[in-house]
Amino acid sequence: MLKLEMSEIMFLKYLIVFFISMLPLIELRGAIPVAVGMDLNKLLSFIICIIGNMLPVPVIYLFARKVLIWGKDKKYIGKFFTFCIQKGEKGGKKLQATAGRGLYWALFLFVAIPLPGTGAWTGTLAASFLDLDFKKTVIAVMVGVLCAGLIMMALSFGVFSFV
Questions:
Q1: CA dist 123 to 10, 43, 70, 155, 156, Å?
Q2: Does residue 83 or residue 97 have the better pLDDT?
Q3: For site-directed labelling of 35, which of 27, 47, 58, 155 has its Cα 20 to 30 A away?
Q4: pLDDT band at residue 140 under the 50/70/90 scheme
Q5: Residue 57's Cα: distance from chain center in Å?
Q6: Does residue 46 contact residue 32 with C-beta atoms inside 8 Å?
Q7: What is the dihedral sign for C-alpha 65, 57, 91, 108?
Q8: Could you tell me how many helices (H) and strands (E) the chain has, helices first?
C-alpha cells in the first residue's frame, strides 16, 4: 500500500490549490477558500494562488483569440469556442463602454471584483479582443488578481461579517 509522508501530503494539497487557481471561472476565487479549508499556510497559499492564477495570462493574451477563431467552425468544439468568443467580445465591449479612456483601470477593477466570470481569464481575453497593450494588460490583471486575492482571504477568514 502506498504510504505518503506528511510533507508529500502537504505538497499535494498545495498542488491542488495551485491547479484550482489556474482553472477558468474558478481561479483564485475558489482556490483560496479551498486552501483555508485545508488549513494550509495563509501566506504561502496566497502566493501559490496568485502564481497559479497569473500563469495562464500571457498564454491567454497571445494565443486564446487565435485558437478560438480557428476552432469556431469546427464540428465538435465550434459551439463552445463561439461561446468563448462572444463572452470575450461582450466583456471587451462592456469594458470599453464603461471605461472610456480609463480602460486599464476598468480592467483592473473587473479582475479585482471576486465574482464568477470577472477574473484574469475573462479580463485577459477581453483585453486581447480589444488589442490592448500586452504589458499594461498584464500589470492591470496582476494588480486585479492581487486585490481579488486579498478580498477572498479577508472573506475566507470572516473579516467581513454579514450576520
A1: 32, 25, 21, 22, 23
A2: 83
A3: 58
A4: very high
A5: 8
A6: yes
A7: negative
A8: 9, 0
According to the model, what pLDDT value does residue 1 have? 55
Alpha-carbon span 104 to 96, nearest angstrom: 10
Mean pLDDT score, 14-22: 97
Alpha carbons 161 and 163: distance in angstroms, whole number? 6
**Position 95: which residue type?**
L
- CA dist 156 and 34 (Å) reads 9
The CA radius of gyration of the chain, in Å to the nearest whole number, is 17
Look up the pTM and report it. Answer: 0.85
What the block records as the C-alpha cell of 111 is 479582475
Q: Is 143 exposed, middle or buried (0-12, 13-18, 19+ CB in 10 A)?
A: middle
